[in-house]
Amino acid sequence: MHTQPLFAIEERAELLRLMRAYPLATLFTVSDGTAQANLLPLEVCDIGPFGTLRGHVARSHSLWGSMPDGGGATVVFQGPNAYISPRWYVNGQRSGRVAPSWNYVAVQAQGTLRFIDDPAWVVSHLAALTASQEEGRDPAWSLGDAAPEFVDGAAQRLGGFEIEIRTLAGKRFLSQQRTEADRRSLIEHLGREASPSARALAALIRP
Fold it and tell me: 55: part of which helix (H) or strand (E)?
């Protein structure tokens, strides 16, 4: 991920927080010269120097067993993003030095992937992943609310995987290079957009 210092997110805790906030990630792998990109919800674990990712797929999925343990994987987590109209830049209107842009937040993790053929591990992972998404709900749903035979059957049909993160990088492209007046204008206009992602982005730009 190309990142200039002004836009880089370097704090490990902040990177993990963003990954947990937007857990539906794109997992990129290469096997026999063929690249795969899969959207998968991932459990973000605070294990190891940079963290560890855990996920699952159906055993019929093309990812399952498609590459040997220890193969490389790249994972991209994307937070709120939105188009930025040149008309929203107050100071830019005076100079004419404006162009359409896109603001966003993203995290890239790279590491080694290993597959886990263990139904008990899958059940534990599903319980943890569900708990992370149900947190704050009242009442929260847990894996224990499902019929045991249903959970056991699902665990038999699923395979797990774990990615030990070796490098972690984040980018917060929120018009930091613009003036305070421009950024206030962005917050105002993004807040009026119909897209929930645009409104969420406005909250991130807000100091």
Answer: strand 52-58
Task: Say if residues 187 and 89 touch (Cβ distance below 8 Å).
Answer: no
| CB-based contact 161:57 (threshold 8 Å) | yes
Of the candidates 165, 162, 55, 188, the residue with the CA atom closest to the CA atom of residue 107? 165
Residue located via tokens 């343990």? 69
In the chain, the amino acid numbered 33 is: G
pLDDT in tens, 110-160: 999 999 999 999 999 999 999 999 999 999 999 999 999 999 999 999 999
- Confidence check: pLDDT of 17 > 80: yes
Asked if 82 and 193 count as a contact pair (C-beta separation under 8 A), the reply is yes
Contact of 175 with 84, CB cutoff 8 Å: yes
Contact 186, 204 (CB under 8 A): no
Give pLDDT tens digits for 128-141: 999 999 999 999 99
For 114-127, b/e burial (b = at least 16 CB within 10 A) is bbbeebebbbbbbe
Residue 72 backbone class (left: φ over 0; alpha: ψ -120 to 50; beta: rest): beta
Residues 174-179: contacts with CB under 8 Å, at least 24 apart: 174/7, 174/103, 174/105, 174/201, 174/204, 174/205, 175/84, 175/101, 175/103, 175/205, 176/6, 176/7, 177/6, 178/89, 178/91, 178/92, 179/90, 179/91
pLDDT confidence band for 92 (50 / 70 / 90)? low
